[in-house]
């Protein structure tokens, strides 16, 4: 990562004005904050990245770059942090945004899908039934793909609502897609986009 950006990790306050002279793919990853609260929390907090105007803009541009020229009808974001990147991507593409929610928050008819999240907790997500039709081309967005359980459940929801014929996701996008068993399952089956340069992928996989 750019040497100047590494200073952000050590600073108690964010510099929302600084932009490196050379903006290589992933330069904004250094804006993310490490966990200081212990093992009950994720190892890294990407939300600090979203506070930086250029960082957020470049992150979304990098996520969408592999899908240039692909037909996308709608962007779906996963509760909760996937809402930020998903809505930003939808606005950039000038497409609608679909929220895939944790169970119990939608007051309309929904379809549900159980899953196990990255921490091993059993959960249920749901989506409204009136937004997805057969053949709709959907880009699925989340903040992070660690074990892949959450994203796989979202994929299953989209495909269930869209078929037959199946509504196959146009692609999957996240800041980081770890090389876990679940992450590999997704990569092998769907077009994927993430922001971590290959040289840094092993460190992200090992949560360093």
TrEMBL record:
Keyword vocabulary terms for this entry: Cytoplasm, Glycosyltransferase, Purine salvage, Transferase
Catalysed reactions listed for this entry: AMP + diphosphate = 5-phospho-alpha-D-ribose 1-diphosphate + adenine
Molecular function per GO: adenine phosphoribosyltransferase activity
InterPro entries: Adenine_PRTase, PRTase-like, PRTase_dom
EC number: 2.4.2.7
GO cellular component term of the entry, any: cytoplasm
Subcellular locations according to the entry: Cytoplasm
Family matches, as SUPFAM superfamilies: PRTase-like
Self-association and partners: Homodimer.
Protein name: adenine phosphoribosyltransferase
């Amino acid at each position: 990562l750019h040497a100047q950006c590494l200073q952000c990790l050590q600073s108690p306050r964010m510099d929302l004005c600084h932009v490196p002279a050379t903006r290589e793919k992933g330069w904004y990853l250094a804006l993310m904050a490490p966990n200081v609260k212990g093992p009950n929390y994720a190892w890294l907090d990407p939300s600090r990245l979203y506070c930086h105007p250029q960082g957020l803009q470049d992150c979304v541009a990098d996520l969408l770059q592999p899908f240039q020229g692909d037909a996308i009808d709608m962007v779906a974001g996963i509760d909760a942090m996937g809402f930020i990147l998903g809505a930003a991507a939808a606005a950039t593409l000038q497409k609608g945004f679909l929220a895939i929610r944790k169970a119990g928050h939608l007051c309309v008819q929904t379809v549900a899908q159980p899953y196990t999240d990255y921490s091993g907790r059993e959960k249920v997500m749901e989506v409204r039934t009136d937004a997805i039709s057969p053949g709709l081309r959907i880009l699925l967005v989340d903040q992070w793909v660690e074990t892949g359980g959450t994203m796989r459940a979202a994929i299953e929801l989209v495909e269930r609502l869209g078929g037959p014929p199946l509504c196959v996701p146009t692609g999957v996008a996240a800041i980081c897609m770890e090389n876990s068993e679940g992450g590999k399952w997704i990569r092998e089956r769907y077009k994927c986009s993430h922001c971590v340069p290959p040289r840094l992928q092993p460190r992200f996989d090992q949560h360093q």
